[in-house]
Amino acid sequence: MSFSQVEIANGALTHCGEPSITSLDQDGKAARLLKRNYALVLKRVLTKYRWNFATRRAELAADPTAPEFGFAYRHRVPSDFLQLIGLYDTIGSQRNYTDTDTIFKLEGGYVLCDTTPAKIFYTANITDTSQYDPAFVAVLEYYLATKIFYDLTKGADRYSALVQEREKAVKEAKFSNAIQNTPEIIQASDWIDSRFSNGSYYRIGPVYT
Fold it and tell me: Which residue ranges make up each domain of the chain?
């Protein structure tokens, strides 16, 4: 199933009880509000949950200029980068996005660490609507609606109901394959391990809720 930006915008307007538009560039308050807020709301929703369709892997080469101090290498993030999920190394489990023994920092558009290349998992800024999962579209429409609702309608009667419907759409997305993966194993810290003689304590659960 494919969606267009205008269809998504009209879904948000429907939630607001407003008539549809034919373009975000047309005259009128609704189109102006949607055009002004669409990109920002899209990035917010993409980074608020770990959407499978927006998760990417990349192997980053070291930048010619090393960090001033602290790390041996820095690696420029991809142009579509929005959020770092984790770093992969040979110690990391296939099960986990965030399990690594490599110490790293994200600073100023670079991943800093003492090894190169840097293999990362990240959330990409996916603007191609044909890649969107239907559950993602439902959540995006509600976030757009709650963002523009008051400026568009100058009323608050339906806002609370919109927020409740938005959270329901999020829960439904969690139960679909849109943001669902094998639960990650979160390893205990060295301090916790020291509290247990066999050093085998761990708990299982997803990193993102």
Answer: 5-49+133-175, 54-125, 185-209
